C-alpha cells in the first residue's frame, strides 16, 4: 500500500508542527530529499510490520475498496503505472488482474523491497526508482493507459500543477488517471481526550497556502520499532478544489469524483469495522468524507 498518509497529528513524540519555509529554512528540493531519506529509513520498519502483512496475512486486494475496481474497469492487457508505489503492495493487484504494470517510487530502499516481493510472489511487475517530478525522464518514451496514485501520496508533492502536467505527459490519448486519496478533511481532524473517549475536532489546515508542515519523529504509521536515521519529513496541504483544478488545468477531463466515509485502516480509536473489512466512524458520529476518488481522462 502507498500509505504515505499524514502522521503529523497521530505520531506520538512528534515535534510541534511548523510552517515553512522562512529565512534559513531548507529549499523545496532539500525538503523533497529529506522526505526521500525518511522513506528509506521507514522501509525496513514497514517491511517487518503486521500492518503491511507481507508474511501473507494480507493480500493486495485488501488495500482496495470495491468501488475502485468498478471505476477502473477491465485492466487485462493494459499498461498501468502506479506512481509513488512504496512497497508495491497495491501495484501487485494490477499485475494479478492481467495488466502490464510499472511501479515508481523515489525510495531506493522501497523499490528494492518491492522488486524482491514481486519476484518472491512470481509477479511480473517492473519497478523504477525515480522522484515523481522526474518520472517522464525516468520512463523515457513510455506512455500508459492508466495511471494510479494516492492513499497518502499527494501530501508529499509541493506543486500539484507540475504533478498534473507530468501525469498528462505520461498518459496516452484516451488514458485514465485514477486517484484515490485521503480526504483533506481527514488530515484536518485530530483526536482530543473527551470524558468517555477521544473526540474529533478540527485541529489542522484543510487548505494549503501556509507552506509545508515539518515533522520530526521516529514514529511511523505502522507497528514496529522506531525509525532509525532520517526522521524529518515535510508535507504540503492540498484542498479538493486545488486537486481538481490542477487536473483540469493539465488538459484532463474529470469524469467522476467520489467521497466516502471508509478508510483501509483504523485511523481513530472510535472507528468500527465496515462490511468489506475497512473502517468507518460509528453510527453515533456524523458521516464525513475520509477518502475520495477522482477519475479523469486525457483527450
From TrEMBL:
Domain Methyltransferase type intervals: 81-177
Species of origin: Streptomyces mooreae
Taxonomic lineage: Bacteria, Bacillati, Actinomycetota, Actinomycetes, Kitasatosporales
Full protein name: Class I SAM-dependent methyltransferase
Keyword Transferase: yes
Enzyme nomenclature, EC number: 2.1.-.-
Pfam families reported in the protein's UniProt record: Methyltransf_12 (PF08242)
Gene Ontology terms, MF aspect: methyltransferase activity
Alphabetical keyword list: Methyltransferase, Transferase
Region span, Disordered: 1-26
Highest taxon, organism lineage: Bacteria
InterPro entries: Methyltransf_12, SAM-dependent_MTases_sf
Protein's GO biological process: methylation
Entry-linked CDD domains: AdoMet_MTases
Amino acid at each position: 500500500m502507498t500509505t504515505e498518509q499524514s502522521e503529523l497529528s497521530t505520531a506520538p513524540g512528534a515535534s510541534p508542527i511548523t510552517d515553512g519555509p522562512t529565512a534559513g529554512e531548507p529549499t523545496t528540493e532539500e525538503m523533497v530529499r529529506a522526505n526521500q531519506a525518511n522513506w528509506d529509513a521507514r522501509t525496513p520498519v514497514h517491511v517487518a510490520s503486521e500492518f503491511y502483512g507481507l508474511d501473507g496475512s494480507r493480500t493486495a486486494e485488501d488495500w482496495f475498496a470495491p468501488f475502485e475496481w468498478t471505476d477502473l474497469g477491465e485492466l487485462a492487457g493494459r499498461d498501468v503505472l502506479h506512481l509513488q508505489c512504496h512497497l508495491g503492495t497495491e501495484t501487485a493487484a494490477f499485475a494479478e488482474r492481467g495488466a502490464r504494470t510499472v511501479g515508481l517510487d523515489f525510495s531506493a530502499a522501497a523499490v528494492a523491497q518491492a522488486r524482491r516481493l514481486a519476484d518472491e510472489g512470481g509477479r511480473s511487475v517492473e519497478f523504477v526508482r525515480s522522484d515523481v517530478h522526474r518520472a517522464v525522464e525516468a520512463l523515457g518514451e513510455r506512455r500508459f493507459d492508466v495511471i494510479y496514485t494516492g492513499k497518502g501520496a499527494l501530501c508529499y508533492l509541493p506543486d500539484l500543477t507540475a504533478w498534473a502536467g507530468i501525469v498528462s505527459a505520461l498518459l496516452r490519448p484516451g488514458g485514465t488517471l485514477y486517484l484515490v486519496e485521503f480526504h483533506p478533511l481527514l488530515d484536518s481532524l485530530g483526536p482530543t481526550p473527551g470524558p468517555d473517549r477521544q473526540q474529533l475536532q478540527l485541529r489542522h489546515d484543510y487548505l494549503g497556502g501556509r507552506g509545508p508542515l515539518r515533522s520530526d519523529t521516529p514514529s511511523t504509521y505502522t507497528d514496529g520499532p522506531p525509525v532509525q536515521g532520517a526522521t524529518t519529513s515535510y508535507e504540503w496541504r492540498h484542498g479538493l478544489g486545488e486537486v481538481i483544478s490542477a487536473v483540469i488545468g493539465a488538459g484532463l477531463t474529470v469524469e467522476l469524483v467520489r467521497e466516502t466515509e471508509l478508510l483501509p485502516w483504523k485511523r481513530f480509536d472510535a472507528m468500527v469495522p465496515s462490511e468489506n473489512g475497512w473502517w468507518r466512524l460509528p453510527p453515533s458520529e456524523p458521516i464525513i468524507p475520509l477518502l475520495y476518488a477522482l477519475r479523469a481522462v486525457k483527450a
